[in-house]
Structure formats: C-alpha cells, structure tokens
Design brief:
Radius of gyration: 18 Å
Number of strands: 10
CATH architecture: Alpha-Beta Complex
Distance between the termini: 33 Å
Strand order of the largest sheet: 1-4-10-5
Strand content: 15-25%
Structural class: alpha+beta
Length: 266
C-alpha cells in the first residue's frame, strides 16, 4: 500500500506544471478562439472542395458541424512544445517559431500531455481535451466564413500579407503571428507549416462524414491529412481547400500542428 501511495504521489507531481511551464500553458489557453457553428454569427454549414478542383477535392462536400469547438490562434510554437514535451526537435530554432519535424504520433502525444497538464493546472475542465482538429473543423476555421480560395479572397498576390509560402519565405524561421490573421483572428492558416489533422487520408470526399467529425478508417491508418500549405509551397497549395495525405510517421521542417480545445464526446 505504501509503495502504491508513493507511485501515485510521483505521478501527481509529474503531472503538475512547473512555474514557467504553467505560464506558457496559461498563455496557450488564452489564445483559443471559440467557434460556435450556427450561432453567434458563425455559419452553420461548410462546403469543402468543388467540381473544378483537383481530384482529392472532389466531389463538393457539404458539412454541418454538429459541435462547437475552439481553435488555437497560432500553430504550436517551440517554447510551448519544449515546455510540454521536454524536447525541441525543430530544425529552425526559435522560441516563438512554429514547432516542426513532428510526426502525427508526436502531434497526438503533445495534445494528450497538454490536456493532462492543463487539467492539473485548472486551465481546462475535466471534460475538455486538447486535440488535433478534424479536417472539416480545420477548413471551417481557416475559411472564417469566406467561400473564396483564401480566407481573404481569390487573389494570389495578397497571400504575402497573410502567410509564408514559396513566394516570400527564405526559410522557416519567423515567429508565429507575424502576418495578418483571417477574419476570426487565426494566424498562419495559409502557408508557414502544413498542419496535421485527426482524419485518415482519403483520395476524395466520396463517403466523407457530413457532421464534421474525423473521418477515420478500419484497421491501421497509414496516411493522415495535412492542411494549410507551407513555406515550401506555391500559392495554389496554400488555399483553404488544399489537402495532402502523408504517411503518419512523416517528419519534415514544413509540418507542424495547430490544436483544438473541445468537450469530450460521451
């Protein structure tokens, strides 16, 4: 019994955020943007893809998001990743640079650990989780209600004001939030890093769920969805609808994550 008590005490101590870690987590919590589809001016529906785009964006897919969620204002920066995970695998070092060189499993592990620490610190409720966005949540948030190619319109020439891409990035070394945000105050949704989503990769939207939930697959999931484009990509890969599937163990200096805060499904 004494041994069990000691182990439980050690586990509790390990879960408690340290002072610097706690400050970063507190700032992280404050940066989530609440999104309530169908209420408070947020559109209820989203059309993903279309008839004119590439094959992976067909057929047009209408989604009615069933649940509210909150989207992180920024991609996860390296100082937050370091505080939560204890390491920094990124190639392009900088405290407020987006964390990269992260596999899908790495991204999921960060979300789980951040959930534990934020619950322990009283920053989120027991029924809330930090997780990856579903692909539908990601596009809904990135569009910010705009039906255009980008959240700001259709003109590629404006992209340099809103994101880092092949046309204006010498390397992946800016701080998050250096460009203009979309209408919902989310930064770097176009370019900077491709962002992991919760969904398994499918070559089209044929059979995709209509409620905005993660589209998984039976058995082992070998490829996952990435969204948003990156500093290595041309403008046409940084649109709100552009999607890409990569092996779940992919690690690249153009791949990172953005988190969602949501209530756990019961």
């Amino acid at each position: 019994m004494a041994m069990l008590t000691a182990l439980l005490t050690l586990a509790a101590l390990a879960a408690d955020p340290q002072p610097e870690q706690g400050e970063l987590l507190k700032a992280f919590r404050a940066e989530f943007v609440a999104i309530t589809p169908g209420r408070d001016g947020f559109p209820a529906d989203l059309t993903m893809g279309g008839d004119a785009g590439p094959a992976e964006e067909k057929p047009p897919h209408r989604v009615t998001l069933a649940r509210p969620f909150a989207m992180a204002r920024y991609e996860v920066p390296q100082n937050l990743w370091q505080a939560v995970m204890g390491t920094n695998p990124s190639r392009w070092k900088g405290a407020r640079n987006s964390a990269e060189m992260l596999s899908h499993d790495d991204a999921v592990a960060f979300c789980r650990k951040a959930t534990e620490l934020m619950r322990a610190a009283g920053l989120i409720e027991r029924g809330q989780v930090i997780r990856l966005p579903t692909e539908a949540e990601w596009e809904y948030a990135a569009r910010a209600g705009a039906p255009t190619r980008f959240s700001f319109g259709d003109d590629d020439r404006e992209l340099a004001d809103f994101g880092w891409f092949k046309g204006n990035a010498a390397g992946n070394d800016p701080p998050v939030g250096a460009k203009r945000p979309n209408a919902w105050k989310l930064y770097d949704v176009h370019g900077y890093l491709w962002e992991w989503c919760a969904d398994a990769w499918h070559d089209s939207y044929e059979g995709a769920p209509a409620d905005g939930s993660a589209w998984l697959a039976p058995g082992e999931i070998k490829k996952r969805v990435l969204r948003g484009g990156s500093w290595k990509d041309a403008a046409d890969r940084c649109t709100s609808s552009a999607r890409r599937g990569e092996p779940a163990d992919t690690k690249d200096d153009a791949v990172g994550l953005r988190c969602v805060l949501a209530t756990e499904k019961k």
